[in-house]
Design goal:
6-stranded mixed beta sheet, UDP-N-acetylmuramoyl-L-alanine:D-glutamate ligase, alpha/beta, about 425 residues, 8-stranded mixed beta sheet, about 40% helix
Length: about 425
Amino acid sequence: MPHRTLAQWLEYIEGLHPKAIAMGLERVARVREAMHSSGGAPFTGPVITVGGTNGKGSTCAMLESILLAAGYRVGLYTSPHLLRYNERVRVNGSEVSDEELCSSFDRVELARSATAGGATELTYFEFGTLAAWDVFARAGLDVVVLEVGLGGRLDAVNIFDADVAVVTSVDMDHMDYLGDTREAIGGEKAGIFRASRPAIVADPVPPASVVARARDVGADLQLIGRDFGYQGDRQQWRFWGRQGKRPTLAYPALRGANQLLNASAALAALDALRDRLPVGMNHIRLGFATVELPGRFQVLPGRPAVILDVGHNPHAAAVLSENLSNMGFFPDTHAVFGMLADKDIRGVCAALRGRISVWHVVTLPGPRGAGSEMLEKAIVESRAGGTVMRHETPRAAYAAARRLVNENDRIIVFGSFLTVADVMQAIQAEK
């Protein structure tokens, strides 16, 4: 097999399967078994799997930060990435190197090619999930945190049994694959629950399907508001759960009105693993104080205010709207806005009604990218308000917004990981 760079590997695995998304566990499980048969390293530590519509990335980041503060060796797998593929696979708080990824890609490819009946087709995400697990299994870790890519029941991450499973929220997204109701989507999200193991649910009003799935598999269901929760004021908050209270906590470094839901889910998960991974109050405080996650209501330093947010569904847009309201008064808000065509664009625009002064709409690349005309139509039909300007790319839209705003205004970049990533690259290039 010829030596490949990381860029060459990523180009190669993009073309292995005719579909970008192919739900199901049979193929990826087959290759995983082949990897084990060829001497793949086992991992015996606890696994925390985090699913949900919104809040997955924030919850994973908090878990990683607290566990690192407690001195544990932590593996974290997330998706998608913003600037580099390496962001998806972290060991002890750092992105793994190109060389480590390439070595694991090589082992996945050897196993894939050796499966019975010929080489097994894997999607980009499936291939990457197996490679990430291979990295973790060889790193001598104490704990692994896995973020579900899409859904839960049939997502590649679900071939690994969760010692604790977290569902952060259930809302309307990826409906072509998961169903067109919260009940259908909730059932898919809850597919990561396991018998007799904690199932943490941070959605304040979970679909009945989530509760039913926990009951059917015999999971130890823990619901926010019933089994754990939080109380707080402007200065501090406290967590309560089955193991007691965690008082006088500072707010997490991640900004946003919804972060206490995610923080509570993280603490409930850690409480469930207290016998295997004990953490102290000092670790929790340090973890919340130092947690970082680019693109989640990330406010850049300087003026005008620039906010980066990868939210791309109505629920995330509603949270974004609330967060913008909580920032105080700004004369004008310019939005750099690009979305994928298979998302609820009109619902996102409606959630931000009255918040945006000028919409800088863009056409995202690729077959799934929505055209700027589609975005403009959605803004008008949803009565979101504001004027609309079309641009070729997110970075061109951002440059135009910078020319138009005053220092007391703000710019919000949102709608897709692709939108935020292009603007982040432009900002880095300016430095």
